[in-house]
Design the sequence.
């Protein structure tokens, strides 16, 4: 049975403006095809491996059970609070009216990346970025709540990885199918995300942070 509770975490990873902007910029670079495929593949595999690792470790340490341990509850609360703090930071850093949203300086250097470096960048954004790492951890803990690793566990992880990777993989697949015709739509997506990056992240972190805290305290 698919765990519905994990889906907000997967969506939280998916709706991350910076990785989407990064892969779209790659699609306009000299190594568009090789870099974007390397990035999307590394993103997918990183989420899968981190999620699988958390599930295996949590099961081995008996961190979760059918009754859901207090330790797991407090992990949700702590990560929820951290996400709320990130939300406040993003809100404060939002551009003022008439100003452009400030993007990380490394985005301008994406054109010079090799496929290996593009893959490495995906690993950093998917598995090292604090927000995404926190969401993958919570999603994996939710999947592992039964305390047993079986086929349902891996099906749920597969669904989680698919949802979390959707927004990165879709632009790549669209480009591979449509070619240069995809440029107009992809540019529109990139420009919108660039303008609204701070507020998208604010609402995303706020909502998921509140959900984690309420679930941690068994309010929902």
Sequence:
């Amino acid at each position: 049975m698919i765990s519905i509770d994990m889906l907000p975490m997967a969506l939280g990873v998916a709706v991350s403006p910076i990785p989407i902007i990064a892969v779209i910029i790659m699609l306009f670079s000299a190594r568009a095809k090789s870099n974007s495929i390397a990035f999307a593949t590394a993103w997918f595999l990183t989420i899968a491996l981190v999620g699988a690792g958390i599930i295996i470790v949590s099961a081995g340490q008996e961190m979760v059970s059918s009754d859901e341990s207090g330790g797991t509850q407090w992990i949700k609360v702590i990560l929820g609070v951290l996400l709320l703090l990130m939300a406040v930071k993003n809100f404060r850093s939002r551009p003022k009216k008439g100003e452009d949203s400030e993007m990380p300086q490394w985005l301008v250097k994406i054109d010079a990346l090799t496929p290996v470096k593009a893959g490495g960048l995906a690993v950093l954004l998917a598995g090292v970025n604090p927000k995404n790492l926190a969401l993958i951890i919570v999603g994996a803990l939710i999947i592992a709540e039964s305390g047993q690793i079986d086929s349902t566990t891996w099906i749920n992880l597969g669904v989680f990885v698919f949802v979390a990777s959707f927004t990165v993989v879709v632009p790549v697949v669209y480009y591979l199918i449509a070619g240069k015709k995809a440029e107009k739509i992809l540019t529109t997506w990139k420009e919108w995300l660039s303008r609204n990056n701070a507020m998208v992240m604010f609402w995303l972190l706020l909502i998921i942070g509140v959900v984690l805290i309420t679930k941690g305290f068994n309010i929902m």
In short: Residues 183-216 form the longest helix (34 residues).
